[in-house]
Target: DUF3138 domain-containing protein
Amino acid sequence: MKPTPNAKTAAPLLAALSLALASAYPSAALAQSNEELLKELRALKDRVGQLEEKLKAAEQKAAAPSSAQWGMTPAQAQEFNRIAVKTEALEDSAEAMGTKNLKISGFIDPTYIYNRQNNSSSFQLLNKDAYAYDSGYFGMALIDFQKEMEGGTKWRLTLAPERGVGATFNTGSIVHEASVNIPLGDLQTRLWLGQIPDWTGYEMTLPPLNKLITHNLLFDFTAPTAYTGAALDLTRGKWLIRAGLANVNIARKSPGNKTPAFIYRVDYAKGEFQGFGFTGLHGKAYNYAADGVDANGDLRFADANGRDTRVDLLEADAYFIRGDWTVQGQISWGRQRGSAIFNEDGQLRDASWTGLSTLVGYKFIPRWEAVARMDYLRNAKNGGGLFGYSSDDSRNGLGRGGGFAWDAANPDPDTASKGANRYALTLGLNYLFNQNTIFKFEYRLDGANRAVFGNPSNGQWAKRNHLLGSSVVVSF
Model:
């Protein structure tokens, strides 16, 4: 078979052939007119162009894959079709079963706490103890279900037996959060309803989000636990605004207590590394001091109804997080009508308080972080009294303390009518063992200007107390 000339060699061959014919028949060449020679050259050029186009088309056809098999063998094409059908079936099944866009996460947080003045040293996990600074939102096991539906509605159910917010005010409840977030017109304007954990301050409720084991004094004693109600959730550029009406620290109000509280939180992200926020609560909430007196001011046993009284809470917090450094701070003020501890004259007195907290964390090695936190809580007025705490509390170090002598006939105003001002210094060390596991170590010094820490084993009172803690937080 003769080789087919390509476009690059065809033009020179034809030119050489023309020259050879002209040399062999010079008289004929001279006889031709210039016009006839130009016509032949143009025809020859057109022919060469046609040959080039045919050659390019042949090369492109040879390089293109077979459209019938997409570059795959028949067996590969069959396997591809099988996978496609199976994937579509799985998607249809997930949508039919309700698992589409469903996220499941959780953690476990075994904790060990030594409390010197309380004479206790124990592991903690799912313990039923009442909430205290040494038995708070740690020692937990939690599972979280989140689902986003078509249209942008978000649904959430978080279960935390014994140590969730639900267990603190709704006996036996394992629900930490049960909420739904519905877009109103657009995804930046939403209606948020259900049981929602409190959003006050720079510290979060759950252990994986906190650098220390225990919480600061403001978190423990001046902030609400949770809200049951509805709030408008707005996102506008760098601003996040939440405001609504809700029951505070109760799932359902008792008969005679009908007024919800107005709650709000506003956050502003100033930049990539810093921001600030503030919260407020104004309305009525359960009063434990009023629960123990009748209409004449005489002490009595609490009934099922209790009494709600006016509460006003204001708080501001800020953060700076960049590189290895974390700096956070918070300041709070609050009062509740008729909820003070000192009420011996038969008249309910108001409780009020102010406090501040600041935290600094530094990662001196990528996996190791040192943390320090300082808290102060001023609570001397009318014997003390904080949000949800309306009696002397020797475990938490609240109220007037022990060792004073007074009675209704001869009260000692220096002891009976003044509460303790509290402070706490906490030092911690965190080790990131792997992506899902954090080891935490903590030393905490709690103190007051009065002897408010009681020792149940010997009846002694102290102005200071020491706590040691360690925990392992494993998340998925």
